[in-house]
Amino acid sequence: MFRSSILSLPIQKYGLKINQIQIGIWAYKPESSPGSRQIQLWHFILELLRKEEYHEVIAWQGDYGEFVIKDPDEVARLWGARKCKPQMNYDKLSRALRYYYNKRILHKTKGKRFTYKFNFNKLVLVNYPFIDMGSGRVPQSAPPITSGGSHFRFPPSTPSEVLSPSEDLRSPGVFSGVARRMARGSVSDCSDGTSTNSELEETVGGGGGGAPGDDRGLGGPDRSFRGLLPPRMTHESLFRMYGSGAHLARPTPRVHSEQLSPFPVSPLPGPGGHLGPALSPGLSMTPGSHLPYTPSPSMSSPMLGSHFSFNADDMKRYLQAHAQSVYNYHLSPRAFLHYPNILIPQPHRPPAHDKPPAHHLLHAPPPPPMHLSHSLAGSLGAGLDDQQHPSPFKFKLQPPPLGRKQRDGGCSSSSSAHGQSAASAGSGRWSEKRCLFTLVVPSPRHQVEPISDNESEEVEDDEDDEDVFKTPATPPLSAGLPPLPLLSLKSEPGQGSAPISPGGTLCIPLKLRFKRRWSEDQKMEADGEREEAEDKKVRRGGVEGLGVAPPTQRRSSSELQRATAQLSLENSGC
DNA sequence: CGCGGAAGTG
DNA sequence: CACTTCCGCG
């Protein structure tokens, strides 16, 4: 079970509680059927958006993260094909999209027909390759490559809303064969027999007409990223984020670097692992650099057991992995943003110069070591303690906080207290997406400082992009944020004054950052909770209500997100 | 067109 | 869980 299942599992988010800090992390969840991973709609949308061939039906347009479904019926058809739901139509698809509102993955752009907007603030897209943005130029609306990394924050107590996970990571080598096969269509036959699905797949297969490159495009450095970086992102940023990450941990030996993900790679059959690691610009997969990643038990079997422990290094790797996961889009909203350490101060810039355009980055070999790790490490270590000691952290799995389920009832365990119980609730199975881990770490030093400063910060961001529109704007720096998720840097509120420079240079003293971050976090969390709770009518079912984590913890808590790999267009056979 | 509840599915 | 299906409401 393990292996196969794990591999194929989708990533899920797990909550980690570290020293009282809770972090949500996505992990794979054991789906029942290995082979049949289902692609998620938003991933699918993202895929379509990145393929030129579909620009006629759906494309980035408008604000950051905004896209327009130019041909609803076609998109629905494609989606239906992908899911083998011949009956799919825009009405249904839109319902699904609306369903994302609650998760805050998407928003509707009011006033614009068929126009939705991704909440990249909440999503962590790591290395989402914006390839082929059609004309080669990327719309401002297109997301940055790796936004994700930046935003990871410790999650509030209420994780409930977390988004979902990711998708497929695929490991190239191993699975590629499969993928190919799948792509080919073996899988393709939908029950209905409609050939519809083929479209995407074909593409994937390389055939399609069009766009071939994208997927596998790895080889081609190219296009893939051209354009991607949002104006605001700079190389530096990227580097900061991922740049140095030369060493990614590779979880599984077999997997190449791509595996950023902490968890075992998922075997998704994707169309050849196209994106492979290579793609991610940011990430470099440095070939030699893999750290000897030892698959810590924890990592390897997160899903399996309920308890495991790992040390700081693991953690780092883990985090890195997350950050770097190839293509991953993820979600946790605010998480990365607030994560203090994620950004790295300039000093660290990797050797690579910052060049202006991202492209270079992309192509460029992976920069040497990234700071990411450091940062993470730092965060963990420093944050928690001072250094990155290898001290082993222990994590206890807790039941996911989630909560929103109304119906089944679920699981709700969010807060700290009940970890285990929750687990049990989960029936032992990792079905739940998030599991909380209790990290036992010494010295959590940081408490939160009550800083009232931030203004609204991100709060708005997610929620409302609308605000952005609506608001007169002056949003503090925050406004900028949304757009620049990548680095997370939203500018700092208040004092920071140093918003991110266009060049992406962010220069904020770490301390400040920290502080701010914390405060922000707190705030966010607070808001977040509120939002979550109230936001959309909280739908959580019963249990959860109570469960919210105590404020105390919450603040500290943050989520980690990770995302994953690529989406594959192919369908899992229907 | 868009929203969101409710029930159903795998 | 993540939709899918159906549907009433505005």
Descriptive report:
Residues 188-198, 553-574 have a biased composition (Polar residues). One of its GO terms (molecular function) is sequence-specific DNA binding. By secondary structure, the protein is an alpha+beta fold. It is built from 20 helices and 13 strands. It has helices at residues 2-8, 41-50, 72-83, 90-103, 172-186, 198-205, 212-216, 222-225, 235-243, 276-279, 297-300, 312-324, 334-338, 358-363, 371-384, 419-425, 457-463, 465-470, 510-535, 551-556; strands at residues 11-18, 21-28, 58-60, 66-69, 106-108, 115-118, 124-125, 153-154, 307-311, 329-330, 392-398, 436-439, 558-559. The strands form 4 sheets. Strands 2-1-12-11-9 form a 5-stranded mixed beta sheet. Strand 3 (58-60) and strand 4 form a beta hairpin. Helix 17 crosses helix 19. The chain is globular, with a radius of gyration of 21 Å. The chain starts with a helix and ends in a 15-residue tail after the last strand. The model is unreliable at 1-35, 131-136, 146-189, 191-463 and 465-569 (pLDDT under 50). It binds a DNA duplex (10 and 10 nucleotides) through helix 4.
